[in-house]
Amino acid sequence: MNALLITALDLASRAVPVLPLRAGKLPFGNCATCRDNACGGRPNMKSAGPCGCPAPCHAWAAATTDPAVVASPVWGTAWERAGAVAYCPGGAGVTVVDLDTAAAVAWARRSLPATRTVPTTRGEHWIYRGTMPSANAVRPSIDIKSTMSYARWLGPGTGTMTTLPDAVRDLTVKEPSPVRPVTVPVPTGNGSCPHRTPAYLDRGITMAEQRITEATGGVHATVYRTFLAVLSTHARCGCLTGSHTERLFAAAQAKGESPRHCANAWANARTALGM
């Protein structure tokens, strides 16, 4: 039996979705029936989907744990021409930080929690337990491979696999575009509060919480803009307290923001307002 097929069947038996890679570490291209997505594609990380093509011609979406598929005649033909075994990290419940140079490895050792590592031809794969969206070039020579992606199988690696940390998730988060500093009038009148009643401030915080909670996309940018609006309206008179900030941070964290993201967004908003 083909050595790559033996490896693939072993991985599939351990719930790791596999697929063959042709020479050059690339997936097999679409067959004539599936070319240009005419078949409807395969939308998930395993082999189920609208396309019934038996060939491994849908890249990461063709990855499967079904041994009958892996050892089928049409896949067997692919294994005979394959150059490597690949797997879908997200389908296996893990995330691979692909470090492609010695400099990238050195950065990871300084910056990321230790976890299981696998040597590659030019660097290392660091494997964490947990999934996230994949992204390329999050730093020089560093890619994130998890959902909707594939990675070469280069062995089980060494070390204890740890839980996916915020430090890795943060690599894919882009800071909102810089905003032009806003000039906010300083209250006059012996420092008296310009708000009509305490209920005015509470209503403003409630509306800000609601805006964050109802965000359906671009949560990070929404949080930043909301913090900016709250600070520009309520921070100059001194009536904004720690309890109000905690409410806003709690709303942001409920949408998936980390405490560090909240603190950074708050600090950036204060800087933009010249505070």
Note down, in words, how this protein is organized.
The protein is α+β, with helices and mostly antiparallel strands and 275 residues long. 35% of the residues lie in helices and 15% in strands. The strands form 2 sheets. It has a 5-stranded antiparallel beta sheet with strand order 5-6-4-8-7. A 4-stranded antiparallel beta sheet has the order 2-1-3-9. The longest helix is centred in the last third of the chain and has 16 residues, at 198-213. It is elongated, with a radius of gyration of 25 Å. It starts with a helix and ends with a helix. Residues 44-49 and 179-191 have low confidence and may be disordered.
How would you briefly describe this protein structure?
With 275 residues, this protein is α+β, with helices and mostly antiparallel strands. The chain has helices at residues 3-13, 67-70, 73-81, 102-111, 166-169, 198-213, 219-234, 242-254, 259-272; strands spanning 18-22, 26-27, 82-87, 94-99, 116-119, 124-129, 135-139, 142-145, 151-152.
